[in-house]
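Suppose a classmate hands you a notebook page containing two proteins, each written out with its sequence and a corresponding row of structure tokens. How would you begin to make sense of it? This section walks through that situation. The first entry is reproduced here exactly as it would appear on such a page.
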Amino acid sequence: MTHNPSPTAQSPQRRVRIGSPLSLLAAIPGLTRFQPDHSIVVLAAVADNVVDILSAQAMTAAAAVGYGAEAEVSPVVGALRSRAAEVGVTLTEVLRVEDNRYWSYVCQNPECCPPDGTPFDVTDHPVTRAFAASGLRVFASREELAATVAPADGEPAAAMRRATRAVERQVVRCVGRMGRAGHRVARRRLIAAVGQPMVAEAIQRYRSGEEIDVEVAAWVTVALRELRVRDDAWARMLPEHGDAHTRLWSDLTRLAQPGYVAAPASLLAFVAWQQGDGALANVALDRALADSRRYSMAKLLRRALDSGAPPSMARLPMTPDEVAASYDAQEAGAEPGSAGSAEVAEVAEAG
């Protein structure tokens, strides 16, 4: 099994071999980025309809682990095994985990698989050490992972709220001077003209290991609500800068005020997917869709992730020049829409 949490030129892939129930259980937290509690995990795919995903990706064998009480896990495992058999997928191992013990649904030998479960501890397992050596942080729970992109509080939140309101007032004043004719178009063009260079500069600052102040962060989040600005930023998400991009969009997802969260959270989901971090991508999409449940980029990315599409399919929609040309053509009378969304739709279909 190959796992690469950040596929940059500086972070080579690590190959982890799974050959026993213990090594399987040691690998799960590293693959999910958190310690599962009550969930069903299928190696190589995590989605609502795991068997369909395995079948669609031409996988013929898999291992599954269910976390929780027997009454919760066994019905799910039964349905999973039945459906897997129908489509020719062999479940080489199926485990239930509760209170640091595991039970196998495949092994029926009481000598190696006792009825009261097998106690285990993977703290010092070689697989655990391999993930730790990669620099990957494993969270105690999914909730702890989600907290890394939760709304900021305290003075950072108050400062961002003031800065965002100041940007909004500035836009209103500037647009007001242009008169009523074409008010909406004028507002979009003003935000794009001022905000797009600021977004590009913020990306460069983070790539250089720097950050941006709250006034710039407010402008960036307001500007990203314009699809032209968001798609230009999207087109700049080169995977070799994945760590810097993750820091940027994580910071902005936390700071963005209600109504401005969907774009940075969706961009965070995209770069997390690029890096093979499906858990972070999903919690970022939770934030995006909570802010705007119809946000198309977030919905399309969720379809891609739920379909089991691998990180290799997280391709850039266009180059920045192509994005600019597309929107210029739209403003000249072409069909409206997002230049990048069609590409993600194709990714979701392919997955």
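The notebook's second entry, a different protein, reads as follows.
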Amino acid sequence: MKAKSIKGRSVEEIKSAIEDNMSDGYRPTSAIVFTSEENDRSEITEYLRDKKIQTFGSSTGANFIDGDLNPEGTVVLLMDMKPEYFRIEIKSTDEGSIKEIAEQIGKMGLTKFKKPAFLVVSGGLATDGDDIVEGLEKACGKGTTIFGGLAADKLLMQKTYVFTNEKLTDSGLLALILNEEKISLKGLAVGGWKPIGIDRIITKSRGNVVYTIDNEPALDFIKRYAGLKEMEWSSSFGFVLASNFQLQFMRDNKHPMMRTPMIANEDGSIVFAGSLPEGSRVRLSLLPGFEVVDEAIQQFKKFKNQEQNADALILFSCAGRQLSLGPYVSEEINGIKETWNAPLAGFFCFGEIGRVAEDVHEFHNMTCSLAILREN
């Protein structure tokens, strides 16, 4: 499989770059499109449809094909996978809950391929990423290969969406389903945030909505420990900035998972990007030093010993990671790309799905999740 990555600040730049890349006879069959410009989306997808290129697309904040971030524009990863090796599916929550439509997509994958793997992105600000993983695994079983993330919107916290050539949904799930016997999907999710202090208890929650922590309203708890006093909490952007303050979800006999506060509600509850069941133990986790970048790059270099070659790279990096690491995040992206020296496309998302151990794929926050595609 041959892949090419391009970026542009306008539709014209994207079209011109695609034409240039196809001028030598290259004929892509699919395109991963990450765009921060909703006004450009329809024109780009119409152009790709005319070229008979199937589209897997998501709204983003900043996106990238290398460490030079593209905050106002679009990136495209072109691939010439054989059409019989993949299928793109999109479903909205009009057809069921996010977990139900994930299960439906999983069943579709099994009807198409003996061993399906899934690259997924969801639209919708209140999506619980754990439900995506659970729905797919309910259909396909534990150990199913799943990578992806939650769509973003420049940290405006107003609307996120996913799309194909034909359909858009701001509350649903998009999947690139791969025949894993023909297209390998491997990768790794790396974090680096360190917990501090004692365990705290989630004393009231429902799914990814937390009402109280240690019997204190969740919003009051976050504000107090983050040192926040007066803030306009109706400003979602201000809340995302505050999300450098994280919780680690502590689990018996498993690695801890980061949980990012996303939306503050008027009743003092907080919508997190992933589930926090009642009775869960959590620990506070604050901004680490910039050594986290070097640690992440070293972990990816170590992983390269297992996965030597890549046809294409897709990187789902947390929006909170971009805020916390500032310009150092470009070093992380370049370090990953240079490790495999393959075409890359990625964006800063509101949650990530990736591999943390052999055959274990889970939903995370504040991680850098890399998906590696290679034709077998």
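A careful reader of the second entry would note: The longest helix spans residues 98-112.
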